[in-house]
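Researcher: Please generate the 3D structure of the following complex. Treat every line as part of one assembly.
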Amino acid sequence: MKKSIIAKNRNLFVSYNISRLRELIRYLSEEKFDLFQTIPFFLHINMPGYPGYVETEEIFYGIYKFTNSGFYKYALKKFALEHEDQNKFDLDSPIIQGLYLMGSAGTLTQSDKSDFDYWVIIERKDLSESGFRLLIEKVRNIEKWCNEEYQQEVTFFIMDAGKIKENDFSVVDSESSGSAQKTLLKEEFYRTFIMLAGKIPFWAVLPSGISDSDYIDLVNFDEGETQNYIDTGNLVAIDPNECLGAVLWQVYKARNDPVKSLIKASLIAYYFFNSLQEESVICNILKDKFSEVKIEDHLFDPYTLVFEKIIQFYKEIDDLAGLKLIRKCILLRLLGYPLTSLPDLSSPKGKLLIQLAGEWRFDLDSLDSMKKFHTWYEEEKLDFENLVFDKLSYIYELILRSSDDLVKINMKEDDLSVLVNRTAAFRQKIDGKIAYASTFLRKKNTEIFFTVKESVTESGSYEWQVLGEAFSYQCSAKHLVYKSHEFIESVGWLVSNQFVKNDYSNVQIELDENVNHFTNPATSFQSIADFFNDFFPRPDHVYRSTRGSEGILFFLKNEKFSELNSFSSADYLLINSWGELYFDYIDLSLLESVAQKCYKIAITIFHLLQERPEYNFTYYICCPENVKDQSILSVISNFVDKMINGAEATEPDAIKQTAVPISVKKHKPFLDIL
Amino acid sequence: MKKETILLVDDNTFALKELVNILKYIGYKELTNAETADDAFAFVKARPFNCIISALEMEKISGMDLLKKIRDNEKYSSLPFFLTDSAFTKEKIIRAGLAGVTGLIVTPYDKENLTSKMESMSKDVIEPAFVEESKNLSKGMDLLEKGNYKDAIDVLDEVVNSEETAEYYYNIGYIKTLEEKYSEAIPAFQKATQLDALFGKAFEALGRAYSALGEKGEAEKYMQKAADIYLEKNKIEDAESILNDILEISTDSVNIYNSLGVLYRRKGDFKAALKQYKKALKIHPEEIYILYNVGRLYIDMNEPDNAIEYFEKALLIDADFVEAREVLDAIMLGSI
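Model: Done. Output below.
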């Protein structure tokens, strides 16, 4: 009886899995599809000359019954392996129990840029410590090879079946996503996984929504073939206590893709407010539909169900603005935000797009505008993304305030600090802080060429415009992406967003020929970029403590263009340990001598040095080429040295100046990111 | 594959892509896209085209202005030029007619309608709708010039204010059908379908009117179109009824059997679907779309081995049949 239930459900699952694979293939180029078909083979073997090879005699690889799979047949053909070789691929004790693809692959949210995230499930207790280390080495080698040869991001998450069963995903947690997510992560796994090779999770072939005791009863049936399934545990309901931490994680992740994060956070909120209803668990709803699933039908996509539920959530809380925003986010997600393009309208993705746009009364023009997201002004993109960030914060607060007890986020304190402080560094608005660019510009595979151009405004003043030109995308026209009245503020925007390549080849400086500069911006640019590039990227550990200043760069200027023999102000960029960059300036116009001006700059540096004496603090001065070897730099550094050594550095003027504390003091960190 | 080169102009890339998809589907591969009228005119000067299809409403220069610019040049006076719009008012129709448009295409696009428009492009036919309106306009202007203001206003009012909904023309056709005046009903139904390209009932009535006149070919064409619309809108019962009626008059029933197969598959009646597909395959055993549909049905029936057989057959006939190749790959990789 149990055997027949499982056999029938197995067939339904296999058909469903085929329909998911069919969608996956639709969005892969021929080259990427070839790679996709080949990767499982590299996990099954350890042979010299094949990617992932690790020199050892130890058996630490192999996938359960891999030679039954289509991937094996493909590999035999591709690598023209001889028939006699084939026996050696039948391993007695393969280490990998199951290989699954997770996330957006094979769903409506997949695009040609999607990563391949594999879950490699093993029985950790069956693998020695050295074998485990070798397996890790092997998968990292394959990841590297995929990236180098195919420019495809591939990640293998090695998981322990026993731990998954207990909802412990600590092995997968390479990004500290948190022990906060247990049932939520299991739900995502069951909802999105595509079975590639190995054992089928019992969950997939057992009736939907069964109790834990029925589950155990069915899993322990003894009618043969149980060895072809893997017990990764039942899932009856989502634990609401996980939701706050999970939303916080999405708030943090939003800096990379706010639209995706808002959709995920909305789903978490849906679960939080429906946690008492067992029938709310989407993976179980999807499993119920396995018998109805038809190939090429968008209505059975895991994300179609997610979209339905989050729309339901916004309607339930009567948040009309939220409803409007989430609908827009869903359509943008289907269009591939931030690198949007129109899908084939006859594909399931295209059909869902048209269906949802029609139901939600988005006309063709609105859709067209979303499809052309890359042509939006940078300001429009940021306005939209800020709305999304605000909604994410709202969801966080909603869950926080709706919790009866004092909610605890089940996460290590250090991890929590990193998460909160990284988010604060990205989102917190503080006077003088240089803001981050839109997700579109920051997307790592967007090749953008920047021009920093000195221009006269309508009011006659000068400004430094940053124009962006995305060659690798469909917008070859130059778009204004940032502007400031000060040169180093514009360059600061480029460096704080990590846009400047090491060889500076993607940035050009255009000066107005009619303007004389005390310090030449074009020649200073590389020094500025070099100085700040050393501070990026910021490692996690710096976010475990409060922020503190780490470096300052001065750019000496003279506002009176006719008198270029001295400088009247010092613009500066200050960087702190969290990678935040601040722009400010010191007005030196009332000081008469160069020495006085140097003293003032020196005392500013000294204050910053004193602030965190245990850390390195560096400074740099951009000034004209012809004076670099002369007085200014040596005078300033002499003053600083004297101050550090405790010698009295006398201010070189009868009128004693009180060192004006620069805005560093007001940049003290505060953690209230929401 | 058709050899005609067609220039497509629309600043709405979404609509433009939809048009490209449909034209490719009906066999036109030589397509050039322009997102502005300026670009379009530059293309026309640079190389010859057999036809232009342009959106009427565009942000910078309208399709109407492009049409005038094209017609101003003696060289392009007879180049087929179609305008597209979601709502052709009388005024737009008159203006387009006066400017020398070849035909009007109502959006959203529709395969049948586009096919017939494209086929008409070499026939130099001006659509009756704006011929009639242009006549009325000229008549009104003549009366104005002669000082007969009252009659002129009446005629022009008629031009501007007359009813223009698809439903209105459908009702006229319906009344004429009741009076068994099928020849008069047909233009009314045609007008209704021009105004609403997804008006299934009007297509069905048009087909039935032709059927009453004994014109089986036309009758089948429009009834099939109605069935497709019903299927698209998931009106399964309506589609089933009309498809069974077509079978009685049809000369080539492959499409009907195929549509019935699709219909039963959607209803979940897989056995009935298979029966219909197999009837279609008896007539055209090498029709790859039907082979594909059978394969797809077998997947829904959880019979992947049978599905493989049909996808492989389709690929033997056309090795470049991408959809069949991809589904076959998915089945192969999905074998656990």
